[in-house]
Amino acid sequence: MGMDETEINEFLVNYYRAPHPERLPQVLLECTKVAWFLDVSNSVAWYFIARIAQAQPALLRSCEVLFRKIPAARPALLQILKQAGDDRTRGFLETCLQDQRFETVRPEIQSALQPWAPGSVAPLSHPAQTPADLDLLWFEFLATGNTLAVVAIIDALEVPDRIRFKLESWLRAVASEEQSTLFASVKRRWIEERLRKKLAILVDPEHGEVITARDLGCYFAMDGFAVSQERLQKLTSQLPFPISEELTSLAVKAPAKWSLASNAQKHAIVLSTCKSEAAKRTGRSRLALLETVAHAELAQNDLQTAFEALQESLTTNPEERLAQIAKASAEWEILSRLIPAAEAAQSETIAGGRDAARECADATEAARIYRSKLVVTNISRKKPGPGDVSWEVEFGTPAKSRVLQTMWLDDSDVYDEWVTIGREHYRGPAYAPLPYSKVKHTLRLDRNLRAAKYLPFLRELAPASVRRLSHEGAEFVQFEYKDVIRSTSAYLPLLSMADWCRWLLPREWRALGPFAALVSGAVDFRNEFSVQACLWAECSTNRLVKAKLTFEVHPKGRSPEIVELEQFFACYDEPVSVVPPAFQLLQSGPAVHARRVPAGEPLPHKAVNLLPIPWAGLVIFAMLPVLIPYLALYAWIRSVIEAHFGPVDGSNAIWLSSPFIAAAVITSWTKPWIYLFPRLYEWKCSVCQTPVNLEVAQCPTCH
Fold first, then answer.
1. For the whole model, what pTM was predicted?
2. Stretch 57-66: mean pLDDT, rounded?
3. Which CATH number fits domain 330-570: 3.40.30.10, 2.50.20.20, 3.40.830.10, 2.60.120.1060?
């Protein structure tokens, strides 16, 4: 009974799992009837039979019989005899040279006999350099189940990313040429935006670094796991330089990644090999393996393992990162035991405290990389509860951060993790990119977690005392700020919601502005409160290493509450792993149709206000169109009024607010905020009330 191509493929794919050598003669006969086996110029399927025949002399005899009977199959059968033949095979081929029936393959027979070298094709003996080498390795695996063949295919992923190297070289060249020109920052920004929008590649043009972690060659050449020449040509045409030699490395790397992804879903042993190799390797080959594992597990509905692999892809070198985390944790532990100088056994007051504070600010601001831990705790409670939160952060420039947030609820704690690079935000566990409009609050939180929020303390406020102290073998300088603010005002939490509002505040309020959002869950600013602060800098580097702010709140009718904010800084200028996810498991897109309908009338839009308090939103948006010029005159107007009428109170405050009142009246009639801030409104079709995207020209339901 014959076999069709599907049955032949099934036999080859599963042979290593359940070998049936007695069926091989029949399979070999059926293979001589299929084109892909006979085409030796494009297929190495013959190697599967040859590899088994090396230990099966009976199979060689069957091959010799078929060599006599089937002329069309002689090129493929000769490859088997040449690779697996014994002395008897050699004699058989020498006999064929004298037979006129083999005239058409006589040159190939002579080439096989001179020299006679069975086993000359050894795919495991050298690195794969062509797609044919990859095919040989896969047939080696299918014939024997030897996972060394899979490892050799994985080795092909280690080929250097030449497109990345060339792009980084180009970025460094541009940075060196433009660093002294007037429009250098504008050009760098343009380059960054062009690569992000056209190619979805994140770069740091100032330092000549490609932030995107995945292999750019495979990213250009593959659409998902499928090799696409059209995609390669389209994306490479968007690069600011030509590439040609850089594409040669893709001839093996892209097919290797495709074949691994395909076979990992079919063979459990291939999947386990990819997992074990991913645990051993670093760099972009590790990321490719994690992507293979994640999609294979996702195909098997193992979501937990798939998303674990996605999370691991955020780190290119896990051992290095674990070592850095351990080092930072040890430094944080030492700093947590650092007590104020007033409580220390030995400390000394130093002169020039303001200058020392400014030097600390300059040194801290110059740091490009550091790790930090910030903890907000209500120490009036016996155990952590609502409002208590901690953040462990890795920072890098430009505007890169990886944050692990822990929030305490009544009986448990909740973890959350995200990665932010510029305006690109990826939140776990899916780490799908989120639009800027949805992550503004988180981006503001990221800014508030940085060391930069302490710079106004160090530069603008006068410390009550500056002392030097020793702690566990290191020297520190402590800057103490007493009673930074004593107030019952609610302005701090309100005005800290926007960065520009802080410039309306006095210096001490501006310094505390970034901390309002961090402690808002634990501090009720409607009550009377006071703030004390201590900052520590390491003497050897002048950089900030610890900060502690104490908020003492006096609720009416209740005992005072004390909330502490402690932040530690460690591992300055040491490597951090802040990279975007190397792949996506969930494809994100607009909530409504993003496709333009080719025909139909222009869509009539109707704006629906989404603000919870419409009239409050009306007043706020009425102020915004005149806010920028008004802020420029605010300081001057206030100084004039105070000079002529004394401190600002309720009566002359009307003069200050009059431009806002006029703007509210005008804009409540013209309603410009709908079009100035369209993302704050829900847009619907006025005919069918279907929600529509702003980018859609026609309603998809009506048309």
1. 0.77
2. 91
3. 2.50.20.20
